[in-house]
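Ticket #4471: structure export looks truncated?
Reporter: QA, pipeline team
Priority: medium

Steps to reproduce: submit the single chain below to the structure queue and open the exported record.
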Amino acid sequence: MPTQTISPAAAPVRRSRPQWPVPAGLILLSLIPVIFGALRLAELSSGAAVTPQNARFFASPVPVVTHIASVTVYSMLGAFQFVPALRGRRGWHRIAGRILIPAGLLAALSGLWMSAFYPLPDGNTDVPLRLFFGSAMLVSIVLGLFAIRRRDFTGHSAWMTRAYAIAVGAGTQALVSIPWLLLIGPTDVPTRAVLLGAGWVINVAVAEYVIHRRSNHRRVARSPRRPVSTPSPAAPR
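Actual output as written to the record:
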C-alpha cells in the first residue's frame, strides 16, 4: 500500500490593516486648534482692536506665538508617527523625532508660562488643570527622551504617546464643548473648566488604551509558537 502524505494546513493569511485612518483622524482633530491659532496670529499681526479677551496676547505676544507655532508643528507632524510604515523606518522616525521633541518642549513650556502669568478675563478657575496637564506633557517628553537614550523603545513609545495625547487635547475639548453649546447653551466658568478637563482625560484614557494594546501585541509576538502537529504517514504494509 503506498505511503500517504498529509500536507500541513496552510497558514492563515493575515490581511494588513489600513495605516492611514488613525493619523488622518489625528490631523483632523489637530486642525481645530491649528485654525484657531492661525486666526489668533492673524489678529496679532493685523493690529486688531484690543479687547478684554485678547489684551493679554497683545501685552505679551511672544509666548502665545511660540505656543501656536510649536503646537502646530508638534500636532501635525506627530500624527505621522502613528503610521506603522513610517515609524518602522529608522531614518524617518529619528529625523521627525529631532523636530518633534524641541517643538513639544516649547509647546509645553510656553503653555505653562501662559497658564501661570497670563491674566484670564474669566478668572483662574481652570489654571490648575492647565498647569497639571502642561506639566504632565513636559514630564512625558523628558521621560520619553531619557527612555530612548537607554534604548528602551517600548518606554519611549509609551511616554511620547502620552505627551501627544495631551498636546492635541484642545481638539477634543472643542468636540466636547460643541454639543454642550448646541444642546444647552453658553457655558459658565466652572462648566468650561469641567469640559476642558474632560477633553484631556478622554485623550489620556485613549492613549493608555493604545499603550496597553501595543504591549499585548508585543507580548503575543514574543511568545513561543507551538508547532502544529501533523499526522505521521501510514507505514507501508
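Status: closed, not a bug. The export was complete when the record was re-opened. Leaving a note from the reviewer for reference: Residues 8 and 227 are 11 Å apart (CA to CA).
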